[in-house]
Amino acid sequence: MEEEKKQNVSDPAAGGPTDLAGKSLADALRLSFRLLSIFMVLVVGLFLLTGLSEIESGECGIRLLFGKIQGEGISRVLGKGLAWSLPEPVGRVEKIPTGEQQLEIKDFWPYATAREALIPINERKAPKEGIRPGWDGALLTGDRALVHVKFTCYYRIGYKNNKLDSESVIDYVSGVIDPNEIVRSAVCNAAIRVASTLTVDLILKAGKVGDDKGDDKKNEDEFGEAIRKIGQQRLDAMESGIWLSYVKTVPPIPPLAARAAFAAVNTARQEKDTLIHSAEGEAIAILSGAVGDIWKDLVEDPTGRTRSKKTPLLKQYAKARENGEQAKADKLLKEINLLVSDKAKGQASRIIEDARRYNVSIRLRIKSRAKTFEELLPKFNASPKLMISRKWADAKEEILTSKTMLKFYLTPGEKFVWRLGMDPQAARRRDNERLKMQQGQQRENKPGKRRPR
């Protein structure tokens, strides 16, 4: 019996109860190990999936392993889509925003509390102590003036010459921690350098071109563009991988305590510009009224807005006279006279027309007197005394019959007393007769067709 019991315990093939329990335990351990293996595989898989990232539009990526950039050349920069790397802390995919970033720089602007910031800058009261060092910022100009200015900067990460560049992306990832701070430093340094070469008047004119929102970037102010170029040189020297696409100058202002003085200067300048424009307009009106459009051929534009390739004729004539070139001066004078007589309009045209009519009337009058002289000459030669007496008689008759002359009849031998003053009715009759004669002459001399020269 004891041998049978020993045999049952020692021999598992005998199929006793102890054998069944051991078998069940072994199966359970085997199943648990398999489940644990599957679970560990799932955990490892899920862990590896945490290294999967999606790079969206406006971004690029860099794969890092123990902080070192992976890949060679342009392949180091990952484009839009899914990207994988070993999960942290072993590795990660560094995402870099490549879209346009905006940064406002107020380092050169007056300090304002939260309540003061709600008040427009032009309506704020100036501090009693003036500009407060450490609180208020200002730029020192080339003419030793102070001016407040702020900028709105637009920049891109990983760009070079306004194009996405893989080396610039690597430079940014390798050396930049805070892009806003490095851009602020570069722009402020450039602003100080540029302002030191300009006058306060030029700086105060900056930022007044283009759209206030900075959308119209084609109309850049020169001050902001100069700052952008110098700031970009500084960023390139630091190998930052940042491209300054645009620096907009918010319209600068003078120190708050000096606003009244600057306003008075601006008012005086506006008045000066108004007077200059008014004088220029009056000059053009006088020239046009004098000779019409041909004034551009005779003299230079008094406004300086247009430049003719040909030297004006009057200037050529004056220069020829100064140089003693009489033949050239005479030729130019003939050209000027021909131009004025043929194409002049306005006042010159009327003067020329009146001169021509006067010339014709003088010629006709002289011709008539010459004809009368030729008719009277034979009669005078035949009987001078008779002719003179007849002419005296004709003159007396003309005087006595004239309605425009006052006549006084005196009795011979009586005392004559001349009284100053004139009979009002007689003077009125005389003036009326003279007016009728003048109107008749004007109707006779009324211009018709232009006489040939």
Give your account of this protein's structure.
The protein is of the alpha+beta class and 453 residues long. Helix content is 51%, strand content 14%. The chain is built from 13 helices and 12 strands. The strands form 4 sheets. Strands 2, 3, 4 and 6 form a 4-stranded antiparallel beta sheet that branches. Strands 7, 8, 9 and 12 form a 4-stranded antiparallel beta sheet that branches. It has a two-stranded antiparallel sheet with strand order 1-5. Helix 9 (313-322) runs antiparallel to helix 10 (326-343) and helix 11 (347-382) crosses helix 12 (384-401). It is rod-shaped and about 195 Å long. 16% of the residues are buried.
Number of helices: 13
**Could you say what the CATH architecture of the largest domain is?**
2-Layer Sandwich
What's the shape?
rod-shaped
Instruction: Spell out the CATH superfamily of the largest domain.
Output: Band 7 domain
Q: Largest sheet, described in full?
A: 4 strands, antiparallel
Quick synopsis:
This protein has helices spanning 2-10, 17-49, 166-175, 179-195, 200-204, 222-237, 259-291, 295-298, 313-322, 326-343, 347-382, 384-401, 424-444, and strands at 52-55, 59-65, 68-69, 77-78, 81-84, 91-97, 101-108, 139-140, 146-157, 159-160, 163-164, 242-253. The chain has 453 residues and is of the alpha+beta class.
